[in-house]
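Could someone model fe (ii) ion with this protein?
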Amino acid sequence: MGVTLCLTKPFAIGKFPSMPDGCAPWSASEKSEENTAWIIAADPVDDARIALASTGAHVIPPAVLRQRLQIDHARWTRFAAHWEDLRPDRYAAQSGTRRMRRYGRFILARDGSGQLQPHATFRQPTNTNRLFPDAGRDFAPLTDAFVTDPVLDAMLSLLSQIAVGIEDAPQWNVHVHPFRVLGSTDSRGDATPEGRHQDGVTVVSTLLVARRNATGGASSVFLADGREVLTTTLSEPGTLLVGDDRRTWHSVSPIRPVVMDAPALRDVLVVTLTAC
Ligand SMILES: [Fe+2]
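Reply:
Sure, complex below.
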């Protein structure tokens, strides 16, 4: 029996009557007409679902994300430019961090289609944010250009596919937060000034959009008993961290400038999904 290998890792093994899309043969001479065994690239959605159901957290590398969402350089550049149009977060300023952001909420159907909801005050569930317990916070709304950006649409669809792996919800309440955190001599550079916390949602995700002149900014995920699931520094734009917020806690260490006469910068898209 001939064996044909796809050159992409990680692997899952299956049998197909013909070559699966995107899978290049290792050697045409190794292919047989009957009962050909293929080794195919694992679906990043499957990988994420398996990880969330086991360890509780998962990182999707940027190359995998770009391929899955069909994001080329021009499309990513247009998406990242939205972070130049954020507004100051006056609540973070109270704890000494310069943070820029916007905020919006969607209802996401099972098929991944999203419906933007009327802009409203952001409230986190009780007991999930020690800095702002039960307090509403008002942020600038998402811009029309951001809401209609195809990368956002693709991201929401991907996240709903991942989330349904741990909870089979008919729809999702989705909070979308583009953030920019600045670290400098007059800014603490704290992405999570509340410290280790939960968001009171089903799935929490962080997509790194940009990172410049920064050291620090390590993302950590913990179980309820304090055991560390993972610690990783999102350093390459397009890296996506997802976590099961029902049973994990998360935090991000402050960023500091590498070159002290310029601020450190960390742009992320935080999206949370709650089954509803
Ligand atoms: Fe959080």
